[in-house]
Amino acid sequence: MDPLSAISEELAEIDGQIADIFRALSNGFQKLEKIKDSNRQSRQLEELTEKMRECKRLVKEFDKEVKDLESRNDPGTNKMLNEKKQSMIKELNSYVALKKQYAANLDNKRIDLFDGGTEGYGEENVMLASTMTNQQLFDSGNRMMDDTDQAIERSKKVVLDTVNVGTETAASLKAQTEQMSRIVNELDSIHFSIKKASQLVKELGRQVATDKCIMALLFLIVIGVIAIIIVKLVNPNNKDIRDIPGLAPPAMNRKLLWNAR
């Protein structure tokens, strides 16, 4: 069991967090030794510096908690906690010193590269300027001006192309917007036409139903007339059936002219 847990759970938790950071710092500096690229070394050093800041904050919290518990602890416990705090500070300072060493090495590399490039460039310019005649200097200046003009023209062309692309994009978006508006209007027209067609179908259905009823009634009338005609022809003496207009009277009811005499 961790002896700090018996004193304070918060002290034990802070101690565990600091131990985790120390392990991460140790692994980080070992990784830093294997990195050759200066930019990657700089990024790795920034990450380690952030971990050291967090560790420093935790050490301060540990010291504050120790001072709060000092009155309740015995002298031996307070001595142990202070030694623990000093050990943390010593280990953190060792990583801070290591960080400063790596940072100084990186700065020296940057200064060497910068100085070397500037020195060579300056000497080259001095040598060229000292060996050129007035005509050569004049021609060199003209070439530099021509190169500058060409660079400006290329920049103008790039800007003009960008503006043209933006204009074409805006026109395309406007055309698409108008097309979408037309599509929406056409959909509204189609919806209205479908609604009118539905109403027309309903009206035609009602008309067809009415026509069917009329046709059925006419059919029944025709059937009735035909039935009466048939009965009249079959049984002409039936008095219950009146003569149908348009039909000739029965032959037996007719009187010949010579029988009337």
Structural write-up:
Helix 2 runs antiparallel to helix 3 (about 40-70) and helix 3 runs antiparallel to helix 4 (about 75-130). With about 260 residues, this protein is mainly alpha-helical. The longest helix is centred in the C-terminal third of the chain and has 101 residues, at about 135-235. It has helices spanning about 5, 10-35, 40-70, 75-130, 135-235. The model is unreliable at about 115-130 (pLDDT under 50). It has a domain at about 5-130: Methane Monooxygenase Hydroxylase, Chain G, domain 1. The protein has five helices and no strands. GO terms for molecular function: SNAP receptor activity; SNARE binding.
Work out the number of β strands. 0
Strand content: under 5%
- Using the CA coordinates, give the radius of gyration: 57 Å
Q: What's the story with the biggest beta sheet? A: none
Distance N terminus to C terminus? 158 Å
- Per CATH, the class of the domain at 3-131 reads Mainly Alpha
Q: What structural category arises from helix and sheet content?
A: mainly alpha
CATH architecture of the domain at 3-131: Up-down Bundle
Q: Provide the helix percentage.
A: over 70%
For this structure, the CATH topology of the domain at 3-131 is: Methane Monooxygenase Hydroxylase, Chain G, domain 1
Number of helices: 5
Give the low-confidence spans.
Answer: 114-130
The helix-strand sequence is HHHHH
Overall body shape: elongated
Question: Mean of residue pLDDT?
Answer: 77
Pfam families: Sec20
Protein name: t-SNARE coiled-coil homology domain-containing protein
Family: Belongs to the novel plant SNARE family.
GO biological process, one term: vesicle fusion
